[in-house]
Amino acid sequence: MNKEVDGRCAAYRAVIAGTGSFTPKKILTNEDLSKMVDTSDKWITVRTGIKRRHITEDNETTAYLAIEAAKIALAEAGLSGKDLEIIIVATITPEMVFPSTASFVQKELKAKKAFVFDLAAACSGFIYSIAIAQQFIESGRYENCLIIGAETLSKITNYKDRTSCILFGDGAGAVVLERAKDGNKGVLYSTMGSDGEVWKALNCQAYGSRYPARKKLDDPNKIYMEIHGREVYQQAVRKIVTTVQKCLKECDIEIDDIAMLVSHQMNARIIESAAKRLKLPDEKVFVNIQEYGNTSAASVPIAFDDCRKQGKIKKGDLVILVAFGAGLTWGANVVQL
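Structure (tokenized):
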């Protein structure tokens, strides 16, 4: 496929050269949670599709997960850290306030010639990062980019709140993009959106400049994630559907041309509802939320890597990556493998 996308035909494409993912060994099952809060395996499964999630130990950090996923992606791409020109880490659970988590990844990978930064767009962070890297590579100025979505959400989860603690897990996924002149594959199109008016639907308010560490919090639970499920559900389904429809229109393709939709794994019911509205059959919608839960920015790259490694997508396939998250933020990438 060599379509004119978004009013231009790029001289270069950002092509997927390798993928990787990594999750902690520790597992937190629905049965485990039922001993911590008033819930059950059936209640969680019916409402979310989640059966278990991977949880970091105290000494396992966001950078650690990111580095392990990156090593796998780099090995598949046949690159080493010294080859990298850009490193982007999408995360809302960074290693520390500063420096960036990407700085620690750069240090471990010995990627001395790369420039690095973090991107905070919650669950949409990886999608945003792909879109940004696409621009750098299509310009012809850079040859490659390592993009990582990495989260340790368990560290900001309130395990006394059954409405939120059942949802989240930890993990990291990575993709290596390389510059190529093959117009028949790569990232063909990206779109992003946001609406700050609805920030309260998903948030974690402390500690930032609004609630600085030196001041006592009026509500100690502000250090944890807060989610308003009904509002998020309605917004997520609507935005996923309209965003995918925009991709189809801008790329002049039909829904039947899509080999797989790889969505952010926020809730199985949200994914199923969106797929039904898009008239996508089950076999064209990848779901692995049962194993990992919601891993925010790590969700799409973990799912994409799983999908590839399970052989459900292959060379030449057209795939849409889509996400919706706090901000509110949303976006999608159309990728030809």
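The longest helix spans residues 229-251. The chain has a mean pLDDT of 95.
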